[in-house]
Amino acid sequence: MTHRIFTSKVSGVYPHYVTKAEKKNRTKDEVDQIIRWLTGYDQAALEGHLDAGTDFQTFFGKAPAMNPNTALIKGVVCGVRVEEVEDPLMQQIRWLDKLIDELAKGKAMEKILRQ
């Protein structure tokens, strides 16, 4: 069974990421930086996917280069440990959720980007 989020448009969830960040005095640029770090997309490609209404399955499936430091993303999102998620696509989505959570919690970008 395909999870509903897999076929959801990234552009449908993206504004929620930005709102979550901005409520905590973070920026849309920081959200974009996190997405680019995670997926390897450049800004133009990211905006192209948002404009095109790309779903999460396609978005992550076409990602140029998932960051090699994703194994360092640990913790709980929605009661689920991200490092224990078995479905690779769901894990990628959870990684993104976790990074946005860290941004909203005021973590420094260097720590969020595992530098």
From TrEMBL:
Pfam families: DUF2200. It comes from the Bacteria. InterPro entries: SP1917_dom_sf, UCP033199. This is DUF2200 domain-containing protein. It comes from Gemmatimonas aurantiaca (strain DSM 14586 / JCM 11422 / NBRC 100505 / T-27).
